[in-house]
């Protein structure tokens, strides 16, 4: 959001989030809604009621000061009380009850929005809590999309095919000149606590790939023995490679005709010109080492994405300050897969780096730590409790991420072994100074 945040804009963003979570939960039957499709994921019906419960906690009770709708179920939908794998055994709301619950909460939220002044309390300034809750619902919509990818059987989702670039562009690098850069933000109204505060960082020269690493490039790594050469992997990465018997990205299979992958229930040849997706941090790290490169740090990624050396300021998005649209980035579950590299020239950063936003989340080599001046807001469990864990930061959002939950400063994080998320990467290289 930029400039004036209107109630109409807030309403639209909340409606869009609900449209998505409704679609993702209405397209399967009740048995599938309460089933656990993977021990890594919650049952879809848990996500749905959890979305409603967070909305009740922050908007109905906190901002609105209203009475609870269902305080008896808070504990069931507290993500810190029960592991994802144990959630199917809880006395959860059934699908009809969950739908009724989110509808009741949303009805009260419209009243709260109507009464709000967007400024009475810190949570209410610029409609922050509404923006936070829309982002939360869309984050769970992406999680639910990953659950759909993990479930077996024919697809329940219909999407338009992702664009294939008219021609294969050169997979070259872009040099980012040494100098200062402003990372993070103080004035993005709906930026979450971990994106704050804005602070200056100095980087020496480095090079970064213009595009995310493609399937075609990743196949070369596989066929050059990438998965059987321990020297390409970190110590932890190789141990995991062996223990988990990794041989290719998740959902890939090989036969006499080549590499195939299954996306949302559909088998297809792996498209060589599209960004690789469903790789762990460790696989990304091994590929980069095979390519004679390394993963970018989080600072490098953000400088390549946001820094405009001409104006000497950081942009909200690679292309500028205006919100994403379908010509700028592949976001919002429009396509249900990454687009061919070269499909979004209009989305290039000032430095000329492309497809930083959308398509695939990009692993960086950085752990998840607070910026200078960090203050947990509005709750420690969004970011602070994860700082310093074994997480790696991912940047840029994927085809499954909504634009409300994606910007140049947005930070995601996950364990380095995870690959059910829509994760890919690009490489970087030090070109002067010490490596
Ligand atoms: C920021 C994507 C790591 O899904 O665990 C959802 C987002 N936080 N509900 C997650 C989140 C609370 C979070 N990630
Ligand atoms: Fe959540």
TrEMBL record:
Q: Keyword Iron, does the record have it?
A: yes
Highest taxon of source: Bacteria
**What Gene3D superfamilies does this protein map onto?**
paralog of FGE (formylglycine-generating enzyme) (3.90.1580.10)
Q: What class of enzyme is it?
A: oxidoreductase
Positions of the Sulfatase-modifying factor enzyme-like domain: 172-429
**GO terms, molecular function:** gamma-glutamyl hercynylcysteine sulfoxide synthase activity; iron ion binding
The residues that the entry says bind Fe cation are: 50, 136, 140
Matching entries from Pfam families are given as: DinB_2 (PF12867), FGE-sulfatase (PF03781)
Q: Which InterPro entries match?
A: CTDL_fold, DinB-like, DinB/YfiT-like, EgtB, EgtB_Actinobacteria, Sulfatase_Mod_Factor_Kinase, SUMF_dom, SUMF_sf
Residues folding into a coiled coil are none
Q: What is its EC number?
A: 1.14.99.50
Instruction: Tell me the route in metabolism or biology where this protein functions.
Output: Amino-acid biosynthesis; ergothioneine biosynthesis
Q: Which reaction does it catalyse?
A: gamma-L-glutamyl-L-cysteine + hercynine + O2 = gamma-L-glutamyl-hercynylcysteine S-oxide + H2O
CC cofactor: Fe(2+)
Could you list this entry's UniProt keywords, alphabetically sorted: Iron, Metal-binding, Monooxygenase, Oxidoreductase
Protein role: Catalyzes the oxidative sulfurization of hercynine (N-alpha,N-alpha,N-alpha-trimethyl-L-histidine) into hercynyl-gamma-L-glutamyl-L-cysteine sulfoxide, a step in the biosynthesis pathway of ergothioneine.
- Protein family (similarity comment): Belongs to the EgtB family.
* Protein name from the UniProt record: Hercynine oxygenase
| Species of the source | Rhodococcus erythropolis (strain PR4 / NBRC 100887)
Organism lineage reads as: Bacteria, Bacillati, Actinomycetota, Actinomycetes, Mycobacteriales
């Amino acid at each position: 959001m930029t400039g004036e945040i209107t109630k109409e804009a807030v309403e639209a963003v909340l409606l869009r989030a609900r449209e998505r979570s409704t679609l993702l939960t209405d397209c399967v039957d009740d048995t599938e809604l309460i089933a656990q499709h993977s021990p890594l994921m919650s049952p879809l019906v848990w996500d749905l009621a959890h979305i409603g419960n967070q909305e009740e906690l922050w908007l109905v009770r906190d901002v609105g000061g209203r009475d609870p709708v269902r305080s008896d179920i808070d504990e069931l939908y507290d993500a810190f009380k029960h592991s994802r794998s144990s959630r199917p055994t809880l006395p959860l709301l059934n699908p009809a009850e969950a739908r009724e619950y989110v509808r009741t909460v949303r009805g009260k939220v419209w009243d709260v929005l109507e009464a709000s002044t967007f400024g009475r309390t810190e949570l209410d300034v610029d409609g922050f809590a509404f923006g936070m809750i829309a982002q939360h619902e869309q984050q769970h919509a992406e999680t639910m999309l990953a659950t759909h990818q993990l479930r077996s059987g024919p697809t329940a989702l219909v999407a338009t095919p992702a664009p294939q670039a008219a021609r294969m562009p050169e997979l070259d690098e872009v040099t980012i000149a040494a100098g200062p850069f402003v990372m993070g933000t103080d004035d993005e109204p709906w930026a979450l606590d971990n994106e704050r505060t804005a602070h200056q960082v100095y980087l020496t020269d480095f090079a970064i790939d213009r595009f995310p690493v493609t399937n075609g490039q990743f196949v070369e790594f596989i066929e050059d023995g990438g998965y059987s050469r321990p020297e390409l992997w970190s110590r932890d990465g190789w141990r995991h490679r062996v223990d988990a018997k990794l041989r290719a990205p998740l959902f890939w299979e090989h036969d006499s005709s080549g590499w195939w992958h299954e996306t949302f229930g559909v088998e297809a040849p792996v498209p060589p010109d599209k960004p690789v997706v469903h790789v762990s941090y460790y696989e990304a790290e091994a590929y980069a080492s095979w390519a004679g490169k390394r993963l970018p740090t989080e600072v490098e990624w953000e400088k390549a994405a946001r820094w405009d050396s001409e104006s000497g300021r950081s942009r909200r998005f690679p292309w500028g300050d205006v919100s994403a649209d379908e010509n700028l980035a592949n976001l919002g579950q429009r396509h249900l897969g990454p687009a061919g590299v070269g499909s979004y020239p209009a989305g290039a950063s000032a430095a000329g780096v492309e497809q930083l936003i959308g398509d695939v989340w990009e692993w960086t080599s950085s752990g998840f730590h607070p910026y200078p001046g960090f203050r947990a807001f509005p709750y420690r469990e969004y970011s602070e409790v994860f700082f310093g864990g074994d997480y790696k930061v991912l940047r840029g959002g994927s085809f499954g991420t909504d634009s409300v939950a994606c910007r140049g400063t947005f930070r995601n994080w996950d364990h380095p072994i995870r690959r059910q998320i829509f994760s890919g990467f690009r490489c970087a290289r030090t070109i002067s100074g010490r490596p």
